[in-house]
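Quick one, probably user error.
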């Protein structure tokens, strides 16, 4: 006889407390995130460490730092992308500038995905209803999800601060930087908690939260690029800048994200009590009784499920391409205080022309972001399977291979759309600034599309994991993280070429400006096709779910 049977009043009292079982759920979800969470922490920490290391290595005097910072602060496009340099005399000030805004955005994405994964996604799959049948309070899942995100953001902030201190940066500035990232994580954990109550699907909840993030980033960008600097007070990412790490630290600003977190979480808890389990506050619109002819195949279904994601990523890539195109022509002026920096940009970009080297480096970075989209898109196959939506589809005339190939086709088309948007944006702006629109537009578009084979290798590796080890499909993020670390840190640390060759991005021609040899691209495409075929074959032979 169980303890619950012996003492039913105690069980009822626990459920009425609202938080019963939160500790148990926290342990379970931390275990589920044992791959995802360290990947985020290691990746972002590596970004911080490589940035600090490179700046300490390249700039050996305050004069060189100040010259570099002047070039940045005089360029509106660069300020919009990264924000202004608040302390131009120290490596800490430039490090906080370089990874402050973009890193804050990545921390926000991490917290959004964690909270939605453990709240709305759990309701969507029906697992939370089963959990709620035990001694688990109504507020316990949301509490455990928030604690998971807070743990991830806090660990990341602490590790980032320790890394900066290890490299000799001031303790106060390093701690302020870590807390600024932690504050952004708190705010967007609260945002995700709220959108998880509003939306009735995890896809919509993620979309709403990431839409808030995009708005916050754009508000911060407008404030930094123009003269209305007060606008940054309206953005949580602007708050992180206002902490002024490694400058004259403003500790009181950290109260803003804390207050926002409390208000957002209070609103989320209030909405939790007002809605039915599995439903959202925003009423779902009912579709037609019969599907349109265009929705009667697996390819159309896959596109319908992912079109919002593809369009959202494409818009972000378009904006980033416009910013890169605006900066590229003046990159030589930005680094005129250090020949060593120009040499490193040439080393990473692979050309002697500094603008081409910068653009080639930017193309490589965009390829990594495109690979992140590809991994997310392939993970959709596992999500459909684990949620039980795959079996009804396969009960029709649709076979396994046809369904999986349709999803992969959308992944491939999405990667093409993202890099096309990037190449067109860079080509238009850079061509207009240099007076060579007719020449730069096809040149930059070709450089962007040359990144596709490497991206497809990452997508194929994730497909192979899905076919062979479906429970480990999320390890596709780990594959991408390894490639990220090799691409960003490898050239600075002069890692052996054999190690660098592990990443498919190492074999991509350094375009624009490099040797546009077709053989590496053909070889990478063939490798991706073979790996994807192996994944499809494994998927055909294993049990569903």
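Nope, works fine. Designed sequence:
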């Amino acid at each position: 006889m169980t303890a619950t049977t012996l003492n039913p009043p105690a069980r009822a009292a626990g459920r009425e407390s609202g938080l019963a079982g939160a500790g148990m759920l926290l342990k379970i979800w931390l275990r589920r995130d044992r791959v995802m969470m360290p990947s985020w922490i290691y990746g972002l920490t590596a970004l911080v460490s490589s940035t600090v290391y490179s700046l300490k290595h390249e700039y050996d005097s305050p004069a060189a730092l100040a010259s570099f910072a002047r070039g940045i602060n005089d360029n509106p496009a660069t300020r919009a992308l990264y924000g202004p340099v608040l302390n131009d005399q120290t490596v800490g000030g430039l490090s906080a500038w370089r990874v402050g805004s973009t890193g804050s955005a990545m921390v926000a994405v991490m917290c959004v995905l964690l909270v939605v994964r453990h709240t709305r996604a759990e309701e969507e799959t029906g697992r939370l209803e089963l959990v709620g049948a035990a001694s688990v309070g109504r507020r316990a899942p949301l509490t455990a999800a928030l604690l998971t995100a807070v743990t991830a953001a806090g660990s990341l902030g602490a590790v980032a601060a320790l890394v900066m201190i290890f490299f000799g940066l001031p303790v106060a500035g390093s701690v302020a930087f870590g807390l600024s990232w932690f504050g952004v994580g708190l705010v967007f954990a609260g945002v995700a908690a709220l959108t998880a109550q509003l939306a009735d699907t995890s896809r919509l909840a993620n979309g709403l939260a990431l839409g808030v993030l995009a708005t916050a980033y754009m508000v911060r960008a407008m404030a930094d690029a123009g003269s209305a600097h007060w606008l940054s007070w309206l953005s949580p990412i602007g708050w992180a800048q206002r902490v002024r790490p490694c400058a004259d630290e403003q500790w009181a600003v950290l109260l803003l994200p804390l207050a926002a977190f409390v208000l957002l979480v209070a609103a989320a808890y209030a909405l939790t009590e007002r809605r039915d389990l599995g439903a959202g506050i925003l009423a779902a619109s009912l579709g037609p009784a019969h599907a349109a002819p265009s929705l009667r195949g697996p390819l159309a279904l896959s596109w319908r499920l992912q079109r919002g994601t593809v369009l959202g990523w494409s818009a972000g890539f378009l904006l980033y391409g416009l910013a890169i195109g605006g900066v590229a022509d003046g990159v030589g002026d930005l680094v005129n205080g250090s020949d060593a920096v120009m040499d490193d940009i040439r080393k990473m970009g692979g050309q002697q022309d500094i603008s081409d080297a910068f653009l080639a480096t930017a193309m490589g970075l965009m390829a990594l972001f495109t690979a992140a989209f590809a991994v997310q898109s392939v993970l959709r196959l596992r999500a459909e399977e684990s949620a039980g939506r795959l079996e009804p589809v396969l009960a029709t005339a649709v076979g396994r291979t046809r369904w999986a190939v349709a999803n992969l086709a959308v992944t491939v088309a999405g990667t093409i759309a993202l890099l096309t948007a990037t190449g067109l944006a860079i080509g238009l702006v850079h061509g207009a600034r240099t007076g060579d629109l007719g020449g730069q537009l096809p040149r930059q578009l070709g450089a962007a599309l040359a990144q596709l084979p490497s991206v497809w290798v990452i997508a194929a590796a994730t497909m192979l994991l899905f076919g062979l080890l479906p429970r480990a499909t999320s390890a596709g993020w780990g594959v991408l993280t390894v490639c990220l670390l090799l691409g960003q840190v490898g050239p600075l640390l002069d890692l052996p070429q054999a190690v660098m060759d592990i990443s498919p991005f190492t074999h991509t021609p350094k375009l624009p400006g490099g040797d546009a040899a077709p053989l590496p691209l053909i070889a990478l495409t063939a490798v991706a096709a073979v790996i994807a075929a192996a994944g499809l074959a494994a998927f055909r032979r294993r049990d569903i779910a």
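The CA atoms of residues 35 and 475 lie 7 Å apart.
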